[in-house]
Design goal:
about 150 residues; two-stranded antiparallel ribbon
């Protein structure tokens, strides 16, 4: 008798809420760990075509760190409006000072699958600049990262 692989069904998935403090955490390592939890790859029921991940709240996004020499000045984030001359460049230093939530969201977005499933997974990420968040009613658990 053969064993069958268990496929997760969207209605049977149990979702949890986690809160992660980004203070002094390297941005890339934080993003990769968060992406794993958002996709549900840390669960034994993970299925590639089903969103079986958990909700993640990241606090203190403005205190995240960047590893590497001169990354604050050399790393550049680009936006293009589509019009002539519509290219906007911002360094990591400017992003960290003015748009820390967008910086963390972009790094996590790069590690998620692209397409319809990735966009659904991305909606379960909540990033806040300070230590306060509005999800106390969900009773999030504190998640300590591995590194």
């Amino acid at each position: 008798m053969q064993r069958q692989t268990t496929i997760a069904k969207p209605l049977e998935i149990q979702r949890k809420w986690y809160v992660i403090d980004a203070t002094d955490k390297p941005l890339g390592r934080l993003a990769s760990e968060v992406a794993i939890v958002l996709m549900g790859k840390n669960k034994p029921i993970w299925t590639p075509n089903v969103d079986c991940g958990d909700y993640v709240i990241i606090i203190n996004a403005n205190k995240v760190s960047l590893s590497g020499n001169n990354k604050l000045t050399n790393k550049v984030y680009y936006n293009v409006s589509g019009y002539n001359g519509g290219l906007r460049k911002r360094t990591a230093k400017v992003m960290l000072a003015d748009y820390p939530c967008e910086m963390v969201e972009r790094s996590v977005h790069g590690m998620l699958p692209k397409g319809k499933l990735g966009r659904a997974i991305e909606k379960k990420l909540f990033v806040y600049e300070g230590a306060d968040h509005k999800h106390e009613a969900q009773k999030p658990e504190v998640l300590e990262l591995k590194y």
